[in-house]
Design brief:
The chain has 265 residues and is α+β, with helices and mostly antiparallel strands. The protein contains six helices and 18 strands. It has an 18-stranded mixed sheet that branches. The longest helix has 15 residues. The chain is globular. The relative contact order is 0.19. The mean pLDDT is 95.
């Protein structure tokens, strides 16, 4: 029996931009080993596994190397597939059960809004050679949360021009990703960022929902704004809106299905 599988570009309204995720719609739960094998086969930054249960859907995310506890773009992609295929009515919220607790997605027009936990950063000293491995020369803030390190720099140009040494970066942060951010130099966005996680097999992630769970609270405090627009300056690029309220962050974005098919297993 086959499995319905989709590839979706998330946090973009245009094909071949944003962040691609595979979404597998399971009729019954799979073992972790089987999901990891499928994620390795898909070879995307994230593969999501969605399985209906009595009170919503279970949702798990895997990189080609490991399972992760939170992934924003694959959550958006999963909600997009459920709405687009008619498995969920666009007027109804979707309730996901995940390693980061219950998550909710709702749809308005062609935008999907995903409610995620805030991952508030706190100041810290960076591991030795971390800033150096990224090529950062003017750092204005260093912090971290349970998932990632956060580095703020003095200009969008510096973020845009980073050329990391990924081998060195993976040794400096084997178990954590790194977010680099600054104020935007484009009027339509409040801040910009990039995200690197070579330790999990992702040199640079095109658009990273979980990173904005950290960036939302960080920039809210600096800009005194509850709602912001951001652009991730990867080669593919992508954009989203962020609302940070209390201990939650709502990420709003669009998505495009690239292909759909049946995986024979």
């Amino acid at each position: 029996m086959g499995v319905d599988i989709f590839q979706v570009d998330a946090f973009t309204a245009v094909s071949f931009q944003g962040n691609p995720a595979a979404v597998c719609l399971l009729s019954s739960p799979w073992t972790s080993r089987k999901m990891q094998d499928m994620a390795r086969e898909m070879n995307l930054s994230e593969t999501a596994f969605v399985c209906r249960q009595e009170d919503g859907f279970s949702l798990r995310w895997f990189t080609p190397l490991t399972e992760v506890s939170l992934c924003g773009h694959a959550t958006l992609a999963s909600a997009h597939v459920l709405y687009e295929t008619g498995r969920m009515d666009r007027k109804e919220p979707i309730h996901f059960h995940t390693l980061s607790g219950p998550l909710t997605a709702i749809c308005t027009a062609d935008w999907i809004h995903v409610d995620l936990p805030a991952e508030v950063p706190y100041p810290c000293e960076l591991p030795e050679h971390l800033a150096e491995s990224l090529g950062i020369v003017r750092l204005v803030y260093a912090g971290r949360n349970r998932l990632d390190y956060l580095i703020a720099v003095d200009s969008a140009e510096q973020v845009r021009n980073l050329r990391p040494d990924f081998s060195r970066l993976a040794k400096a942060t084997p178990a954590s990703g790194v977010i680099v951010t600054s104020l935007s130099d484009q009027a339509e966005y409040d801040y910009v960022c990039r995200y690197f996680d070579p330790g999990k097999g992702i040199d640079e992630d095109p658009v990273t929902g979980s990173a904005h769970c950290c960036l939302g609270p960080y920039w809210k405090k600096i800009l005194a704004k509850d709602t912001m627009a951001a652009r991730q300056l990867s080669a593919r690029g992508g954009f989203l809106h962020i609302s940070a309220v209390g201990d939650r962050v709502v990420l709003s974005g669009q998505a495009v299905t690239i292909w759909r098919g049946e995986m024979l297993v």
